[in-house]
Design brief:
With 217 residues, the protein is α/β, with parallel strands linked by helices. It has nine helices and seven strands; from the N terminus they run ααβααβααββαβαβαβ. A five-stranded parallel β-sheet has the order 1-7-6-2-3. The model has no long low-confidence stretch (mean pLDDT 92). The chain binds zinc ion (ZN). Zinc ion binds next to helix 2.
Length: 217
């Protein structure tokens, strides 16, 4: 209420198209974003590390994830987390999974300090509000700096991310009794997700899969 009153005085613009809007993202952009939504989110929910994914990493969805990360529009992450949670709650293979802990893929501490937040954690927060899952925002820590994955081939990606994550010591016991769902903004080759899952599994923690907002074709 207060927010909508304030917005009458403080003209807010949509972070994606700059049109004035009463919402965090204008309805025109929301509609366009939904064009990138996959019909079947659980088509990759199989194998060693099952993947649940909301949409296609291109066009407006790609633009919106960049605006979340680099222009720091956390509201975009909150909205995408809600959509991911709604899709999860409507998907037959996963919706009945109970009592899991959601752990976002961590950023390099320096990058997180510069950015001020971890976009995967922002997405995970609203995802957990919708699904009712427990969020453990700092269940994993990144203990080694890595290069950006962009431009690396699959073998280089694997080597780059090797042993980059560690389970937070104080949470090891607690996590051992609850299966974990990893969560990230973008899933590319799966090298990062596989390495994160490996660090949990090496401590005897069960990892059921990873949920991500977007995946390139
Ligand atoms: Zn817009």
């Amino acid at each position: 209420m207060l927010k909508s009153l304030l917005s009458l005085f403080l003209q807010e613009n949509c972070p994606l198209c700059d049109r004035p809007t009463q919402e965090e993202i204008c309805s025109y952009c929301q509609k366009q974003l939904k064009n990138y939504k996959l019909k079947n989110h659980q088509q990759f929910w199989q194998g060693e590390l099952p993947l649940f994914v909301w949409g296609q990493y291109e066009g407006k969805l790609k633009q919106s994830i960049a605006a979340l990360k680099y222009d720091k529009y956390q509201s975009i992450g909150e909205l995408l987390g809600i959509w991911l949670g709604e899709s999860w709650s409507n998907s037959s293979k996963v919706k009945s999974i109970k009592s899991i802990t959601v752990i976002p893929i961590p950023l390099d501490p320096k990058k997180q300090k510069d950015r001020g937040f971890n976009q995967a954690e922002v997405i995970a927060r609203t995802f957990c509000q919708i699904t009712g899952y427990r969020l453990q925002g700092n269940g994993l820590e990144k203990v080694r700096s890595t290069q950006a994955m962009f431009g690396l081939n699959p073998t280089e990606r694997q080597a780059n991310i090797k042993q980059a994550f560690r389970v937070r010591k104080s949470l090891e016991k607690q996590l051992a009794s609850n299966p974990v769902l990893l969560l990230d903004d973008i899933y590319t080759t799966g090298a990062t997700a596989t390495e994160a899952a490996q660090s949990l599994r090496s401590k005897g923690i069960k990892v059921i899969g990873i949920a991500a907002i977007a995946k390139p074709n």
